[in-house]
Amino acid sequence: MRTGAKIGIGVAAAAVVGATGLGAYNLVDAVTGGGAGGLRAEAAPARTGPPTSDETEKTARDFLGAWAAGDTGKAAGLTDNVQAATTALTAFRDAAHVQKVTFKQGAAVGTKVPFSVSAEVVLDKQRTTWAYDSSLDVVRGAEGGRAKVGWQPTVVHPELTAGRTLRTGATEEPKVVAVGRGGVELDPGKDHPSLASVLPELRKKYGEKAGGEPAVAVRLEGPAGTAPKNLHVVSEGKPGKLRTTIDAGLQRAAEAAVNRYSDASVVAVKASTGEILAVANSKKGGFNAALGGTTAPGSTMKIMTSALLLEQGKAAPAKSVPCPKNATYGMTFHNVENSENPRATFAQDFAASCNTAFISFAGQLSDGALAAEARDVFGIGLDWKAGVATFDGRVPTDGGAGKAASLIGQGRVQMSPLNMASIAATVREGSFHQPYFVDPSLDGRQLAKAARPLAPSAANDLRSMMRLTAVSGTGARAMAGLGGEIGAKTGSAEVDGQSAPNGWFAAYRNDVAAAAVVPQGGHGGDSAGPVVAAVLSADPRPGADVTG
Hints:
Elements: E1 6-7, H1 19-22, E2 24-25, H2 27-32, E3 41-42, H3 53-68, H4 72-77, H5 82-94, E4 98-105, E5 112-123, E6 126-140, E7 147-150, E8 165-170, E9 176-179, H6 198-206, E10 216-221, E11 229-235, E12 240-243, H7 248-258, E13 265-270, E14 276-281, H8 289-292, H9 302-311, E15 326-328, E16 332-334, H10 346-352, H11 355-359, H12 369-376, H13 400-407, H14 417-429, H15 456-472, H16 476-479, E17 486-493, E18 502-509, E19 512-518, H17 528-537
Parallel strand pairs: 9-12
Antiparallel strand pairs: 1-4, 2-3, 4-5, 5-6, 6-7, 8-10, 10-11, 13-14, 13-19, 15-16, 17-18, 18-19
C-alpha cells in the first residue's frame, strides 16, 4: 500500500480500473454467439465485506485527486451520498472562497484514511493559506459492492457537521478609533469621560466612512441563534480613524473645571469655524446637558438682545440708558440686589447686567423681533447637524410680559451651553458658524446657515461691550489674567422652586468661545465664570491651531 501521496489541483490521480470493478465479458459466448445478443456481458458478483487495503488507498486517492482538480461532480460520485457531497464540496469552493486546495494523504488505519489539507482562501484582494487535518472512511457501496468514500461533512473539515456551513467573510464591523485635533486618540474611560456618550454616537453615524477594514475569517456557521466560530483568520482588519474637532487639551481642562461642582456643564467652540473643541458635564452618565440642556440663559441672553437693539439703532454703547431699580412691562422687573444707576450708558448697563434698562426697550420692539434676530443672525432654532443630537435653542415670538422677560433671558427662552458658546462665537467672528464634531466634508451634509451676518458696526460695538464686561464689569473677576482679545457676559437665571438662580457665563478669548451653566450656582460670574475661564486659559494641543 502506498502512503504519503500528495495530490494537488490540476494533477488528477491516475484512474486505476480493476476488472472486478467493471465486470467481465464471457469470451466463450462471444466466440460461439451464444445468447440473444451474441456477445454477452456477465456481471461479476458484488463484493462484500470491508474494503481491502488497496481499495481503501485507491478510493481515497481518487476522491482527493478529483477534489483537488476542482472536479466536484467526479469527487462526489466517488462517495456513497452524491447529493450531500456535491453540496458540501461546492460550498467549500464558493462560500468558503477556497480557490485552490492540495492534500497529503496519510497511511490508512483499516478503512480510515487521514489527510492534511492546504487550502488557499481568496476574498477580494485578501489571500491566505488555511492548513488543517481531516480524515475519511472508505466503505463498501450498496451498488455493486464498489468501494466508496463514506460521506460525512467532517470529510471537508473535522468540525463541520450536519446543519452547519463554512463561510468566509467579515466577522464584525471594523473598530473605529475617535481622534481629536492633530490625531490625538480620545479616551472616554480615562481623560475624557464626558465624551462617553458622544463618541459612540459619532462612531455609529460615521464609522463606515472612517476608512477601517473589517476582520475576515473562515467561519463555522450554524442555525440562526447560534454563535459562529472562527476557524481561520484571513485578515485581522484595521481600525478606522474618525477625526473629530475635539481638542484633547481643552477637553481635559473642561473636565477638570466642571468636576469642581456636583452639577455643571461647559462647551467650547472655535469661533471662526464652529468646530466643537470641548464638551464636559460633571454628571457623566445619562442626559448630556452641555449639548441638550433646555433652560433659561438669564442675562447671557442680553448678547442677542443688544445685537438687536444696536442693529435697529435703538441703542449705542455711549448712549444714555438709565438703570432704575424697577421697570414695568406687563409685570414688574427688578435688578439683582435692587441696584440702580440713573446715569448709566448702554455699555455700562450691559457690563453691569442691568435688567431694567433692557426691559425699557420692550415697548419699542415688535413681538417677533428678538426671535427673528436669534434665528436670522445667530442661527438659533435652525436644524443644526453637529454629528450628534443637540438642542438648537428656542426664542419664541411673545408679547407683553413674556416679550420683556425674553429680553433678559427669562420667560420661555431656552438655551444650552452649546447654544450660548455659539452665540459668543458669532459675536467674536461677526457671523454664525454652525457647531459640529465631524467635518461636513466626510459625509457631504449641509450645515445650518443663518440668513445674514451681524451688521459690522453692531458687531464692533457688541465686542467692545463684551470686553468692558470682561475687564471691569460682572465678568472681570473670572476673566482676570486672560490676555488677548477677550469678551464676556454673565447671567443669573431664576427658576421657580429653586433657592438660588442658575449661574451662566459666556465668553471668548481670541478664536475660542465657551459657555457654562451651574444649576443653582447663583451669580454667573462667581459660579460658571471660573469654569469658562479655566477652559479659555488652557493651552491648546501644540500644533492644533485652535486659537487662530
